[in-house]
Amino acid sequence: MRAVVLALTLALVASQSVNFAPDFEASKTYVYKYEALLLGGLPEEGLARAGVKVISKVLISAVAENTYLLKLVNPEIFEYSGVWPNDPFVPAAKLTSALAAQFSIPIKFEYAKGVVGKVLAPTAVSETVLNVHRGILNILQLNIKKTQNVYELQEAGAQGVCKTHYVIREDAKAERIHLTKSKDLNNCQQRIMKDFGLAYTEKCVECRQRGEALMGAATYNYLMKPADNGALILEATVTELHQFTPFNEMSGAAQMEAKQMLTFVEIKKA
């Protein structure tokens, strides 16, 4: 009887210990298609908006234990300035050409069990180009608990350390893992922000009690495939929204919308 109980216990522990964290095997290069969109303006259609779009291939390969290289290949930048959504994006050939040399430089990052560590880049890579890499690495940031399918935690990311809600569902027959996480950017222990042009303004305590002028949230949807040592990200879609209402006006919030999509293409031998 004890042997049966022990066997059942070990089976339960094994089922709970399935590693869903993304993993990139050594001696292999993972190729992804990447698209990012950043738009600012009023939320209604038929009004002016401005923004940029980046399309590129992304290569990820291991160089040492828990250390990887991230490189962008053939990046293209497009500009938008017109009436949304009628006007098209226009290729920004001069900007793409000016940043091509920086984009060709790979960056190094630490990564273990779905958590991004230090990011190392040469001084030749500007903050603008490095922010594109940070956006990709922010997609890879996943704090997966082995024994829970629904949970909350304070997760570090490009926006700071913010409250994040996880929902994980495994489809064993299709060999797929569906993961959704939502991040409340108004509930952060450490919010990464930069204020400028506010040298002569004064904070209004009563105004903040009525409501925040700046509000934001982000949602992440993942489709992954179980692998031997972890999971392979097949597709990841990110939508981040920030609304700014400096005077608490009704239905008059300006917004910044960012979207990212990372799609698996193939695995090459390094």
UniProtKB/TrEMBL annotation:
Entry keyword Disulfide bond: yes
Domain Vitellogenin: 24-270
Biological processes per GO annotation: cellular response to estrogen stimulus; response to estradiol
Molecular function per GO: lipid transporter activity; nutrient reservoir activity
Superkingdom per UniProt: Eukaryota
PANTHER family attached to this UniProt entry: VITELLOGENIN-RELATED
Name of the molecule in the record: Vitellogenin A
